[in-house]
Design goal:
globular, mainly alpha, single chain, 6 helices
């Protein structure tokens, strides 16, 4: 998607970036934002901060490990018993991301049960209207060929 530091974009448009384009920068932006939300809302103390780990993102300053912790808890809650996510974007270079075909089917079913997410995934194109257009391309996004 080409996000740069300082770009302002709605979570709604970021979801189009994740689900329509499969872009890593949008996945990381969502993880940073919601990781901070999780951290602030749950009021993690020093003990929890030490217990919540990510092999790949543990020392990253932007709260990503808290997003990943919540993401893995939600995954277990919807029945993903053989999955562990250690990257918000499913990076192949992160060997700690694991899952099974069964779990991915359950995840796809959970996504399709949400009307807004089903709408985004069925879309052929999306024009993003960023809040700050100075450094962000507003070209229409096409579905990823991945």
């Amino acid at each position: 998607m080409g996000l740069k530091t300082g770009d302002q974009i709605s979570v709604h448009n970021l979801l189009y970036g994740v689900l329509l384009r499969s872009t890593n920068d949008t996945c990381i932006a969502i993880a940073q934002h919601f990781g901070k939300v999780v951290f602030d809302r749950l009021g993690y103390g020093e003990k929890e901060v030490e217990e919540i780990t990510s092999y790949f993102w543990n020392y990253h300053p932007n709260y990503i490990k808290y997003f990943l912790h919540s993401m893995n808890m939600v995954a277990k809650g919807i029945g993903l018993t053989d999955s562990y996510f250690d990257s918000p974007c499913g990076s192949e270079s992160n060997i700690y991301n694991v899952s099974t075909a069964r779990d991915m089917c359950l995840l796809a079913d959970a996504v399709m049960s949400e009307p807004e997410l089903r709408l985004i995934t069925s879309c052929r194109q999306h024009c993003c209207d960023p809040v700050d257009r100075k450094s962000f391309s507003a070209k229409p996004w096409q579905p990823s060929k991945k």
